[in-house]
Amino acid sequence: LQVPHTASQPLASNESRRFTNKHSKKALKASLTLGILLGMFFVAWLPFFVTNVAQAVCGCVPAGFFDVLTWLGYCNSTMNPIIYPLFMRDFKRAMGKFLPCCRHSAEPRPSAISLSMRNSNSGPRAATSLKNVL
């Protein structure tokens, strides 16, 4: 016994494949971002921690070298706010909402009327128009 082939099966297969492909692209981008962030963290802070342990054991690390490694770690912490917006669209959007310097001119700002309608518990009424309100 064979099951007859319907037209909806190839469509479902294509949609499933497209969803999987889109999901794997997002996962790859997330992995890449995480890899870059962790890689930069280890490059910046691992020498500091190794030197810190060496200083505790033998006391043979010059103070100037220790200060340079400390500032290298501080520079990594300074780079995080730059790295996140470069690789994460959601982070960029969230920062754009809170920082006026990062807003795009194309993004519409809510008007006072829409804010008052949003903050009041009454939604738009069928008989009330904007002309009647003003």
From TrEMBL:
Where does it localize?
Cell membrane
> What's the protein's topology in the membrane?
Multi-pass membrane protein
Q: Where is this region: Disordered?
A: 114-134
Q: Which Gene Ontology biological process is one annotated for this entry?
A: adenylate cyclase-activating adrenergic receptor signaling pathway
PROSITE patterns associated with the record: G_PROTEIN_RECEP_F1_2
Q: What is its main location?
A: membrane
Database matches in SUPFAM superfamilies = Family A G protein-coupled receptor-like
State one Pfam family annotation.
7tm_1
The protein's superkingdom reads Eukaryota
Q: Which residues cross the membrane?
A: 27-48, 68-87
Q: Which GO terms describe its cellular component?
A: plasma membrane
Name this protein carries in UniProt: 5HT6R protein
Instruction: Name the species this protein comes from.
Output: Oxylabes madagascariensis (white-throated Oxylabes)
- Taxon lineage: Eukaryota, Metazoa, Chordata, Craniata, Vertebrata
User: Coding gene?
Assistant: Htr6
